[in-house]
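Fold this sequence, please.
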Amino acid sequence: MSDSTPQTYSLEILAETTGVSTQMIVQYQEHGIIHPDFDDETIRTLRRIEALREACEMNLSGLKMLTQLLDEVEQLRQELRARR
């Protein structure tokens, strides 16, 4: 497999790797919190979501909004780094 092709995972492997139940992963996907292509980015996102959910006791709508905001902040940081 080439370095430019991202590794993808099955639902079961994703659940095993992150410790998140398959049912919860499906709910996150249905609510648009994670994308359907289960890759390394999905693992990172799931770990972040679970940490936020545990720390903040947020519902799925709150998690989605917070995740989108954090993604936007990260994108803005990358744009600022690229300008330097």
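The chain has a mean pLDDT of 90. The CA atoms of residues 9 and 38 lie 5 Å apart.
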